[in-house]
Structures are given as C-alpha cells and as structure tokens.
Design brief:
14 strands, alpha/beta, 44% helix, six-stranded mixed β-sheet, globular, 409 residues
Length: 409
C-alpha cells in the first residue's frame, strides 16, 4: 500500500501551528441525543469556532506553509461561504492578499463576513463548481495560489486537528459522526482519530453523513473511485459537493467505516432540535450528524461524538427551515376543510380544535376556490400540534364531526 499523504504527525504539526489561532471548541454532553442513542453522546461545537465553522483550520494551516514568494503572489479560493471566510481570515492574519469567488446565490451573511475579513469578493457562477473553474482561471492569469476548499493534504491535516481535540476530551469515544461534502473534514478526522486510537491500543469508528440530494461518496465508494453526480437541491449547501476529492477519496475509502445519507426533512428537524433543545444556531450541513442520529441511522455501542461543523446560516433561511422543521416533526399543520356555506360552521370547527388542544395560528375562509359550488366554502386553518399522534387526533375529531379535512402540502 502506498504511504498516506496525510498522517498523524502531519495533523499534530497542524495543531501546533493552529494553537492560538483556531479556538479549541467545546465538546458538550448532549442529554437528548444520549437518550436517543442509548449511550453517552457528545457534540463537538465547531459552530462556535472563529468565522463560524471548522474551515478556518485547514485554510490557516495551508496558508502557513506557503513560501514567502507564494504569499507575495496572493491567494484565490472558491466557496459558498465557510471556506471563503476561513481563507479570508487566515489571509488577513498572515498579511496575504485574498480573492474569493462566491456563487451568485451565496448567503448574504457569509458574503458580508468574507468581505469584512478584507478579501476581494467576486460573485460569479451559479455553483461552487463553476466558481472553482473561475478561481483556477484567476490563478493561471495572475499567479495567485489556489487554496482548494478540501482537496489538499495541508487542508486535510488542518481539519484533522478536530479529531485530536475530540479524543482529548472524550478519550473513550467509540464513534465520531462527521458531515461530508468533498471529504476534507472526514478524511482529516479519520486520520487523526484512527491513528491516535491505534496508538492507545484501540479503535474508533468514523461515520460520514451526506445530504441525500447531493451525496457523491456512496456511489464513488461503490465504484472504487471518485465519480461525479448531478447536483440536487439541498438546504445543506456546505456539503453539496458533486465529486469527492482526488486526495480525500483514498483516505475515506481506507479509513471511514460508513457513509449514510439524510433527507431534507431530517436536516430541517435537526436544525430545529439544536435550536430548541441546545440553544445552538447551526447550519444544515453542520446539523447533518444530529439528523442521522434522529433518523435512526447510527448504531452505537459506546460513547459517540457528533461533529457540529458550522453555524453560518442566513436568518431568512433559518426562518424557512424552522417552519419546515415544525411541519416535518408534526408540530405544525395546515388543513383545508370544505364547509357548507351556512352560519356556525367556523364556530364548530374552532370548538373541535380547541377541544383536542390544537392552537390555531391562521385562518382563511374563502368562497373562491375552483371546484366549489355556490353553496360551499373552504376553510384553510393552520394549527400548532404536539406531534404526529396529536395531528391524527385532530383529524379524527374533525372527521368524527362529519368534516372532510385535507392536509395541505
């Protein structure tokens, strides 16, 4: 077998470089997740890292190893936001000019933060992949050094410092759950955790989580080499990568025990859970490990750590995700109820909803829906509920009173 490009000593060197730059983020015991898993479960809170995500680590270590001549040429990167902020911050700290290509639809808070760290931001291209092409062209044209978001040994080693910190805080950890995009984070964590655990005479499992809408690792692992997939729509933009890295894939193939996928409902519910139960603001990509736990995709036999990788989320997206998460978790429901157009029908429905404890949020009463006769109306009512079982009670109460409620999509 060929020697690994990234080793534990490589990660340990990155840890020395990052001391005093990257924060040693907390590892918190998560009571709710522990109940779900049946084992002690913890969260590594990289959403509390400087710049709001783990990306600072790999970017800083990569830039620290540039020669004086390379630093003088400046750096260029492409990112939807987190890598952009990491590179901009690292460049500012080291006095290096940075140009960042960001997609036209990049979240505004990430774009403004990147500019705030002193980088020149170019918004162009519809996707990160298009921005990577533009960044490479810029590098060829100007001589700037390309700082890839995940596919470089120094970036991988920098992200791997998280694995060292996890085992320092939870030395008996048996599993680490990691969000996966292009593979830089999980490759680095796997190298650090697996080699450090082996040094102590034991093993630790490393499990990756991807958004099912854009999950490139399962087909790549099945094929035995990186494959390019079609990008799907996902709220987890931070891990929406259509092809594993050439440097990351062999490490994931060798060291990662499993990669599972979660759908959009799972991601939205996880963001909502973290907000409500832990008071943490976490972006969907960062919440992926929690989504996998809630979806029952993780089988644990001992202490487990979920790596919460980032917290940079647009408030408007958070608002939509909270609403979606409430629906997905059975906490919010909109009903369309055909009614005969005569007095007292709205009062009857309101009384039934109150009797079963459904809190009315919004009501729309209309005679103008297509398909209605002159003697019919439709009542659209949105209610707060306590979960799927309670929603079924609401529907049964309405049906039992002779109504025909339909759950609106």
């Amino acid at each position: 077998m060929a020697a690994r490009e990234v080793t534990l000593s490589h990660v340990e060197d990155a840890a020395r470089v990052l001391a005093g730059v990257a924060q040693r983020t907390p590892v918190d015991h998560a009571s709710y997740l522990s109940e779900l898993m049946g084992v002690p479960t913890y969260m590594k809170l990289e959403n509390l890292q400087r710049t709001g995500s783990f990306k600072l680590r790999g970017a800083t270590y990569r830039l620290s190893r540039l020669t004086a001549e390379e630093r003088a040429r400046g750096v260029v990167a492409a990112s939807a936001g987190n890598h952009a902020q990491g590179v901009a911050f690292a460049a500012q700290q080291l006095g290096v000019d940075a140009t960042i290509f960001m997609p036209l639809g990049a979240p505004v808070p990430k774009l403004l933060a990147t500019k705030g760290y002193g980088a020149t931001v170019v918004t162009d291209g519809a996707t990160v992949e298009e921005c990577l092409v533009l960044a490479a062209e810029h590098a060829a044209r100007t001589g700037a050094v390309m700082i890839h978001p995940f596919d470089h040994p120094d970036v991988i080693a920098g992200q791997g410092t998280i694995g060292l910190e996890i085992l320092a805080e939870v030395p008996d950890a048996e599993a680490i759950i990691v969000p996966v995009g292009g593979g830089g984070l999980i490759a680095g964590v796997a190298v650090a955790a697996k080699e450090a655990a082996a040094r102590a005479g034991r093993d630790v499992s490393v499990i990756g989580v991807q958004a099912s809408a854009t999950a490139s690792f399962p087909p790549s692992l099945a094929a035995g080499h990186p494959v390019t997939i079609e990008r799907g729509g996902t709220i987890a933009d931070g891990i929406a990568v259509v092809r594993p890295g050439e440097h990351t894939f062999p490490l994931v193939q060798e060291l990662v025990d499993d990669v599972v996928t979660v759908d959009e409902d799972h991601l939205a519910r996880a963001v909502l859970t973290l907000l409500e139960r832990t008071k943490l603001v976490v972006e969907p990509a960062g919440a992926a490990p929690v989504a996998a736990i809630q979806a029952g995709l993780i089988e644990a036999t001992g202490p487990t750590v979920a790596l919460v990788s980032g917290g940079n989320i647009d408030p408007l997206l958070l608002q939509r995700i909270v609403a979606h998460g409430l629906v997905a978790s059975g906490r919010y429901m909109t009903l369309r109820i055909p009614l005969p157009d005569r007095p007292g029908q709205l009062a009857r429905v309101s009384e039934l909803l109150a009797r079963v404890g459904a809190n009315v949020i919004e009501v729309l009463h209309t005679r103008h829906d297509l398909g209605l006769t002159l003697n019919d109306v439709v009542l659209q009512v949105s209610v707060e509920t306590r979960g799927p079982n309670h929603q079924e009670q609401v529907l049964e109460a309405l049906r039992g009173a002779g109504f025909a409620p339909q759950v609106a999509g």
